Amino acid sequence: MQITWRDLMTATHGMFFGGLFLMAVFGMVVLLAQSLGTRGELQRTQAALRWERVYLVVIVLLGWAAVLSGAYIVYPWYRALPPPGADLAGYPQRLLLSDPRTAGWHTLGMEWKEHVAWFAPMLITAAAWILIRFQSAGQEMRRVRITVAAFALTALLATAIAAGLGALIDKNAPVSGGSIIHLSRGAE
Amino acid sequence: MNATELRTEAAVRTGAAGAAILAASLGCCALGVLAVIGDASKSAARLLSFWKPTGPLSGVSTLAILIWLIAWFVLHRLWRDRDCALRKVSLAAGVLLAVAFLLTFPPFEDLLPGK
To answer: Quick check: B101 and A116 CB within 8 A?
Structure first.
């Protein structure tokens, strides 16, 4: 069993950072919807408040890790220019553009994904900061929480677009190659 | 909202929250505008290529983050000790985010002059 370095980094970017971020933002939306649907004060212990803060900080870190690893580790491999006569399999952007049936995955898919993905960590950082700062304000800040919920939904949409397009682009032209990492020798 | 809720909301300053909301939306919109600029010409793309392997995306994202953080810092300093018109701020944030999504959507971007 083996994996290439680029496969590992692509999986870390998309499945670990991106996938966990998507799920965590969905959880944030559910928590906000729950708190908005509650009448009166939400009674929470100090430990619950502390865990909520940890959860929010982790979401923010996952969001930034997803976009930074995407832009500065995976994307340069995706857009690398091949030398003349090279096999395009190792150059995903050029491989997609070489065929009119797949060119749209770059011209629409990647062109949108590479920009829209950045909305999510900015919005979630602001949302998390507000929720932590006004954590004890509870229902008094109902209007703020409604806007924060809208922010979280927008971030969820941006992440879903980026993650969905990323997965489909990778199916058509995977970012692969680099040194091989042996995970196990298997049965000889 | 009843009178008690109105009183308690007034006791908690909403300015800091409004600053964070507006600044983040502004950052997203700036990213959309910069993405269009980066796509408009080869010289702009070259200028925005802060790190060659990532290309113009490196400049577009870095500048958008800087605009977001500076806007947040300035608005926070201005609004932190007072209430802001949250309804107006939320509306402005919604408009900025809608523009941001539109500007990054390639079919819309292609309709802009110069493409």
So the answer is: yes
